[in-house]
């Protein structure tokens, strides 16, 4: 029975509480996540993962991970490995060992024979085109296959010979015998098995017939005694067949409940189209930081906590939703602001010389690592006569009185260092600033300021002699349109953003040379950045994870 503490936050939980109150399955709750291992998981899968695991956890239940590996043409072990890694990275652990639909091939085969013996399935020699034509249309009844009235004995013989490899691909299929006039077209004698003489990534050459999703999925749920089969809304019309097979085979009655998919602006979640981006060289691979895959988001630096929060906070609905990228980035920023240490890097450097600072002198200045968390401690920064600052932080002539950065006659505080007075600049023949000249107030040292000088602006900087070159990959969305799949008559590839990746060489404080792959930092006044796997010894590579504010920085 349900506990009084069990209150429903959505319609799925309402259904579960109803089952608990009715004593169904003895109060046991068991969900599953059944991905097909034909590509990497993406942000849409994250929503399904969170719903399945969090729902089971709330009611003290369990969740299985089962690979829907019934199509040997597209499935690979590398995809299995990455799916497992992604789920664990998100923070979830499934019940027992990873399961596979292929674990149940013999049981599924026996269930198919049971349907045949009950006169509820038959072997059809019609072509795929002929079967499609037999289905009819909405409001138009279908027509029976000429092979529909074969006897159970004849169908069993043919199906056994299909398994034995006697027939070529496409020559025969096994169809359920339901109703060719059924209002749900999916129940007009759906195909359950097809012939494929291809090696399977787990079973090798053992099988040459493979069940289709509609047969393998529901029956695998029943074999595992899944109480609640939570799936996306696209499978709503498949539920009738799901239930028909349970009744026809008299097996464990799993309950299918559908929820709406989650779409996110500027992301696509079709594995086929994600694969096309790779094949066309638009991106470098499944884990390219511009992809919607969890591997890509991880490489970019998205914390798993932020993705979980995003999926939970967007709710569970019966209607497909389109979420903004700004909301996802807000969730990322929320976590990184709390956890990421603050470091200094200058992305578009110009030299600044403090003319009254002693030549050749270097002093170490203390700065906090994370003002959000004192336990992160402090570190020391080298300070010298020559520094790098951002080119955009200098104006020859300020546009208004509220300009608080560098300009002739302006006082500015250098973060954790001194207040400086801008005296002017040097430039090349084309008018480009090549050097900014300043003086400093020796008594204005941060934390010990007795100068009496007030500076309204604070800038980040890097000591020029101690600076390290860092590669920085600045990202914008991969597409120029938030919904590139929604334009009739246009290919989504037409919306590829040519500015989605800009690679620059920046100047970083020396500690960044020792940053490790996966570490994340806030570059002061720039954004949050994460160390990329391409990093090599002494050659750090940083990905822009998210800007400091909503919108895109590139």
TrEMBL record:
One of its GO terms (biological process) is glutaminyl-tRNA aminoacylation. Residues 29-336 form the Glutamyl/glutaminyl-tRNA synthetase class Ib catalytic domain. Residues 340-440 form the Glutamyl/glutaminyl-tRNA synthetase class Ib anti-codon binding domain. Its EC number is 6.1.1.18. GO terms for molecular function: ATP binding; glutamine-tRNA ligase activity. InterPro entries: Gln-tRNA-synth, Gln/Glu-tRNA_Ligase, Glu/Gln-tRNA-synth, Glu/Gln-tRNA-synth_Ib_cat-dom, Glu/Gln-tRNA-synth_Ib_codon-bd, Rbsml_bL25/Gln-tRNA_synth_N, Ribosomal_bL25/Gln-tRNA_synth, Rossmann-like_a/b/a_fold. Keywords: Aminoacyl-tRNA synthetase, ATP-binding, Cytoplasm, Ligase, Nucleotide-binding, Protein biosynthesis. GO terms for cellular component: cytosol. Residues 458-532 form the tRNA synthetases class I (E and Q) anti-codon binding domain. It holds the Pfam family tRNA-synt_1c_C. Belongs to the class-I aminoacyl-tRNA synthetase family. PANTHER family: GLUTAMATE--TRNA LIGASE (PTHR43097:SF5), GLUTAMINE-TRNA LIGASE (PTHR43097). This is Glutamine--tRNA ligase. It comes from Neolewinella aquimaris.
């Amino acid at each position: 029975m349900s506990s009084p503490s069990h209150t429903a936050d959505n319609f799925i939980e309402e259904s579960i509480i109803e089952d608990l109150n009715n004593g169904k399955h003895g109060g046991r709750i068991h969900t599953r996540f059944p991905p097909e291992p034909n590509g990497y998981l993406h942000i849409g899968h994250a929503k399904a993962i969170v719903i399945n695991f969090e729902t089971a956890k709330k009611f003290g239940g369990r969740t299985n991970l089962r690979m829907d590996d019934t199509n040997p043409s597209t499935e690979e072990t590398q995809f299995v490995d990455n799916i497992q890694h992604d789920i664990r990275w998100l923070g979830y652990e499934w019940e027992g060992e990873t399961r596979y639909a292929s674990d149940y091939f013999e049981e599924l085969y026996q269930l198919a024979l049971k349907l045949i013996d009950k006169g509820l399935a038959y072997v059809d020699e019609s072509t795929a085109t002929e079967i499609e034509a037999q289905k009819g249309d909405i409001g138009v009844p279908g027509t029976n296959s000429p092979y529909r009235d074969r006897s159970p004995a004849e169908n069993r013989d043919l199906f056994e010979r299909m398994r034995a490899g006697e027939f070529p691909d496409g020559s025969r299929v096994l169809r359920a015998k339901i109703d060719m006039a059924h209002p749900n077209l999916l129940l007009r004698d759906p195909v359950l098995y097809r012939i494929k003489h291809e090696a399977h990534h787990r079973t090798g050459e053992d099988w040459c017939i493979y069940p289709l999703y509609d047969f393998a999925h529901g029956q695998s749920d029943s074999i595992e005694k899944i109480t609640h089969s939570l799936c996306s809304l696209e499978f709503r019309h498949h539920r009738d067949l799901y239930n028909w097979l349970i009744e026809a085979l008299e097996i464990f009655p799993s309950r299918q409940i559908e929820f709406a998919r989650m779409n996110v602006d500027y992301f696509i979640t079709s594995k086929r189209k994600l694969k096309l981006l790779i094949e066309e060289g638009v991106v470098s691979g499944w884990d390219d930081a511009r992809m919607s895959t969890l591997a890509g988001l991880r490489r970019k630096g998205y914390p798993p906590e932020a993705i979980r929060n995003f999926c939970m906070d967007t709710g569970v609905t019966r209607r497909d939703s389109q979420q903004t990228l700004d909301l996802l980035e807000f969730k990322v920023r929320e976590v990184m602001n709390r956890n990421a240490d603050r470091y200094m890097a200058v992305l578009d450097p110009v030299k600044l010389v403090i003319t009254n600072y002693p030549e050749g002198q270097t002093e170490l200045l203390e700065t906090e690592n994370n003002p959000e968390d004192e336990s992160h401690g402090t570190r020391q920064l080298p300070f010298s006569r020559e520094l790098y600052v951002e080119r955009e932080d200098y104006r020859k002539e300020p546009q208004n009185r509220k300009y608080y950065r560098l300009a002739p006659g302006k006082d500015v505080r250098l973060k954790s260092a001194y207040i400086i007075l801008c005296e002017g600049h040097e430039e090349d023949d084309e008018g480009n600033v090549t050097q900014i000249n300043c003086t400093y107030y020796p008594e204005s040292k941060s934390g010990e300021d007795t100068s009496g000088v007030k500076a309204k602006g604070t800038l980040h900087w890097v000591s020029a002699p101690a600076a390290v070159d860092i590669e920085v990959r600045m990202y914008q969305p991969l597409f120029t349109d938030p919904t590139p799949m929604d334009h009739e008559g246009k290919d989504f590839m037409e919306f590829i953003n040519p500015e989605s990746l800009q690679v620059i060489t920046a100047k970083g404080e020396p500690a960044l040379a020792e940053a490790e792959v996966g570490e994340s930092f806030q570059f002061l006044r720039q954004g949050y950045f994460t160390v990329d796997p391409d990093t090599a010894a002494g050659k750090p590579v940083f990905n822009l994870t998210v800007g400091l504010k909503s919108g895109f920085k590139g």
